[in-house]
Amino acid sequence: MIFTNDITSIFNIFIIAVIEAITEIFPISSTLHLILFGKLVNINSNQIIFIESFVQLGSVFSLLIIFKKKWMAIFYFSFNKLIKTNYRYKNITILHIFLSIFPIILIGLLIYSKITCLTNSKNMLYSLIIGTMLLLFSEIIVKKNKKIKNLKKISYLQAFLIGLIQCIALCPGCSRLGTTVSGAILLGVEKSIAVNYSFIIAIPILFGVSILNIIELSKEILFKNFILYIIGLIISFSISMLTIRKTLFIITNYSFYPFIIYRIIIIILFLLI
């Protein structure tokens, strides 16, 4: 299906923006839900990923606004630590961020041409199962393994390992948020800190992925519906701004079990179809 400026296209872009804004900030995989929606309305995977890349920028901009103070503190500390050897204030640094995003950037670029091959039902089912198991394991040990109760306590090694675990999210169905938070918890990071760290490193990753997808997929997808994509971006931004803080509170203070059950229901539906 090629988008045209009619009521159906506007409705589809609205639904895509809503799905992206909501599923991006929960551990349930935004790409999986968008691909499933695409199959429902006869939009191919490449076009869905292209549209997602536009509307995802709305979520990225909202995250940047909400986490701007944390990012400013990271830059400030990194700069002062570089020029002042006796600087006492502690925080995570740009190096932590780099170590957490480098693995997924490297592996993502190496297998980029094959990622769309992972969007078939069989691979997405496997990814769903893996992502669900990670969430379940982290939920089981979340109260037993809380060694790191402050963002500044995350080590360089832990930052890198979180980045490695995050690479699983290259497969649609795993959820980037789910894998990073689960991985951090399994490494001893308190849940609230894991959630905040996941959102912090999400900004450069999601921005980079969105720009790369737009550049690569624009070769085969026309920009004739550019206005619709911008509308989707604005909708995604608006919804994200309204929901991210509430979402942070929910996933920080409540169990992952509702999301685990939801993912199991999707797995069962996959098996039945």
TrEMBL record:
InterPro entries: UppP. Its EC number is 3.6.1.27. The keyword rRNA processing does not apply. One of its GO terms (biological process) is cell wall organization. Pfam families: BacA (PF02673). One of its GO terms (molecular function) is undecaprenyl-diphosphatase activity. It is a multi-pass membrane protein. Its main location: membrane. It catalyses: di-trans,octa-cis-undecaprenyl diphosphate + H2O = di-trans,octa-cis-undecaprenyl phosphate + phosphate + H(+). It is found in: Cell membrane. This is Undecaprenyl-diphosphatase.
